[in-house]
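User: Is it possible to get a 3D structure for a protein together with its bound compound? The compound here is pyridoxal-5'-phosphate. I've pasted both below.
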Amino acid sequence: MTVPLLDLKAQHAAIKDAVLPAVMSVIERQQFIMGPEVPALEAGVARASGVRHAIGCASGTDALLLPLLALDLQPGDEVICPAFTFFATAGTVHNAGGTPVFVDIEPGTFNLAPAAVEAAITPRTRAIIVVHLFGQLAKLESILEIAGARGLPVIEDAAQAIGARRRIGGQWRTAGELGWCGTLSFFPSKNLGGWGDGGMMLTQDDALAERLRRLRLHGGTKQYHHDEVGTNSRLDTLQAAVLLAKLPFLESWSRLRREKAHWYTEHFRGHPAVTAPEEDPANEHIFHQYTIRVPKRDGLLEHLKSHGIGCAVYYPLALHLQPCFAHLGYHPGSLPETERAMAEVVSLPVYPELTEAQQEAVVETVTMFYR
Ligand SMILES: Cc1ncc(COP(=O)(O)O)c(C=O)c1O
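Assistant: Yes, that's possible. Here is the predicted structure of the complex:
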């Protein structure tokens, strides 16, 4: 049996009757830039995320870049972030004129370790980016406390965690709700994916929202008048129409992802080689990825691929060791938990349409390798 890592064709087959008319309607109206689907999606995502403002933009990368630009970073200004994440988390810091300062993760959840964040703060620190990796929130309340004590803004990179929740102070809080700015990606493989690139910025801060709306439109609110230099980073109407049609399915998709993930964890219990991912008890993990740790990882990857089981390594080379950041002076050994994770992780297929027979094939094929 072959099991793809992700099966977007199966998703499309199930929902095309909802999505195709929405797309056709945009095509009939020919309003491809800032059509009514954009504010409608923004309102829907804002409601679902518990924020006052949701501002569409061209990608999850731009969703990070624009708030970083709003910080007006000066050369030498530092932004603390993890190295065990997708490149955009730190690439945008560089492109906004700052210096990424990489900190280590907690081994169980792969998320930023609050104590490491605190230890990395210097007089040049201007912000902290916390990534809610693989679909569960980091220890946000601890990081907000550390940041708040020093007046530092926190950006929540929630590209992989749309709608994920954490119990904080006795209340469920959604990814992107509590930070200065939360950022989403609608890359097609994300839990809510478009038919191309797209992103969104979330904030409770009216002044920041106004600034972000300006920055995505060449720095002006009035056409051909520019208060500052921004860029073109609008969310296409066509993408907004696709996403708006998919949004009502998101909650049930997240529930199904959780069910599939818990099934795996149940079936890997007591396994001699596999360490299942940890779900922080305060979290409602939405399993953008189901990522295990194993010995002989590269051998397992080859074995799974040769048996038709989709798998991938997120991420094989952590950001502090990337050639483009060599000038920052990190070296192997700088971030031990990050480096152990990059050598041990494998992500397995997890998506709403995955069948039990497929999951059995995945577990059986993993087990066969270690027998
Ligand atoms: C953690 C993280 N941050 C940022 C991004 C960037 O999003 P995009 O690919 O939409 O630019 C991604 C997605 O790929 C991501 O996984």
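The chain has twelve helices and twelve strands. The chain has a mean pLDDT of 98.
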